[in-house]
Design brief:
It is built from 13 helices and two strands; from the N terminus they run ααααααααααααββα. By secondary structure, the protein is an all-alpha fold.
């Protein structure tokens, strides 16, 4: 259903679209962003103005959507704007261990979720140390020692670039809402269908049509202990530093 607010002005009225982008509901903003993208330089100017005004606020998926439009645009002014104002992307790439999360942000910005998932586990193995990098998977004890700031960075990247559908915190909320019942959790996020585990990679859904919480995979083929450690990590505490 179309939000009534989106009908308040002509579709090609740039001032009306600007107002709706700033003041509209998430549903309105979701519809306005591609409309502005289709208006060429004038629409891109509005999107750049919107992003610049929100630069000091924590990034939401709306900011991520605007960033993705500009990132994927061929317009020189959009490229220059991102280079000068958001050189590392829309999400601050904080790490307690000096890990470079820029490759993950770039993949998520173009919504290459399968490659982003592979990079996510690689970066988590880097966090765990050289032994984990060599074996290419994690022990639950590795996860317990992760800095909260790194898990928050990875999670925020997934959240912001997926319209809020993907991320560890999304998965954790679903798990908690199901009373921490793993048997109910797996089918809810489409990691299991009936008695059959979803097969990697072809049976997973690598786009936004996937169920909420479907990604990232976080070692899902190696039992419950890693993801259980992930969900119980202090990174998700309200008192944890961000």
């Amino acid at each position: 259903m179309t939000d009534p607010m989106i009908l308040s002005g002509p579709a090609n009225d740039i001032d009306s679209l600007r107002l709706q982008l700033i003041a509209g509901s998430f549903q309105v903003q979701q519809q306005i962003i591609p409309q502005l993208a289709d208006l060429g330089n004038e629409g891109l100017d509005v999107l750049m103005e919107f992003l610049l005004k929100r630069r000091d606020n924590p990034a939401t998926w709306v900011d991520g959507k605007v960033y993705q439009v500009l990132y994927n645009s061929d317009a020189p002014q959009a490229k220059e704007f991102l280079r000068s104002c958001f050189p590392e992307g829309i999400v601050p790439l904080k790490s307690g261990c000096g890990i470079n999360y820029n490759p993950l942000q770039q993949l998520l910005a173009v919504q290459d979720f399968q490659a982003a998932d592979r990079i996510t586990i690689q970066k988590m193995c880097e966090l765990a140390g050289p032994t984990a990098v060599q074996r290419k998977w994690l022990y639950f004890t590795d996860v317990e020692s992760f800095p909260a700031i790194d898990l928050q960075t990875i999670n925020n990247l997934w959240l912001v670039h997926s319209e809020g559908k993907f991320g560890f915190s999304v998965q954790r909320e679903i798990w908690l809402s199901l009373g921490k019942n793993w048997d109910n959790f797996w089918p809810k996020i489409s990691w299991k269908k009936g008695n059959n585990w979803t097969r990697y990679p072809n049976e997973f859904t690598w786009d936004l049509s996937a169920p909420k919480g479907h990604l990232p995979l976080s070692n899902q083929l190696r039992g419950v202990r890693v993801i259980s450690s992930l969900f119980s990590h202090p990174a998700w505490s309200k008192n944890s530093e961000t």
